Amino acid sequence: MVEIESKQFVKGICISIDRNLMKQVVDYILQPDSNCVEEDVTNFFTTSNFLDSHYNDVDTKVGGLLKGLPFNEINGFSCQHNEARADFFYKLAEAIVQDQMPVFKQLHNIPSIKYSTKKDLYKRIQKAKELIDSSFENDLNINNIATYSCMSEYHFYRLFKQVQGISPMQYIIKKRLENAKYLIAQQQMPISEVALHTGFTDVFSFSKMFKKHFQMSPSSLLKK
To answer: Domains of the chain, with CATH numbers?
Structure first.
């Protein structure tokens, strides 16, 4: 199922990839020294265990690939039996596996026996992550984010750290620092303004965290 919210005309396509092809791609991409069980990974990509996802065209391989798809030539595409058609499906299968492998590993870190529960909890964490991504410069309260995700503060904190590898507050600070780096490097914004704009209370604490995260001071970046 695909849901599209838009006030403008939207073109859409439905693409089906053979399960055997997905298994071959997983076998090819999965590293021999990986701690993932091959059967579990294969089941994730070839059964209903697969998690429905959003693929934007900025930071996902699938989104970038589909963005470049010639929709004006899509009619009759499924009937083409040539190398170009095969190459497209190979690339798409590879992109899906590369985009979703981190998701599989994050799901694997959620301590639940039932897979349906893992999916539900993962979606709650993603909902919280999306909230942080859209408002990290504000004065975010962890308890409020947990409530927004329909979890207790303790449960949310522990689960977020298990899935993302860092605590919610560490993730917020990471997002603020990444945005600050962009504002300094690309927008040439004064450091004092950057600190306030990205949610830091004072320039000193901002500069200290910035240097620790990027191994260089904000002023050094501004000079470059």
So the answer is: 14-108 (no CATH), 168-223 (1.10.10.60)
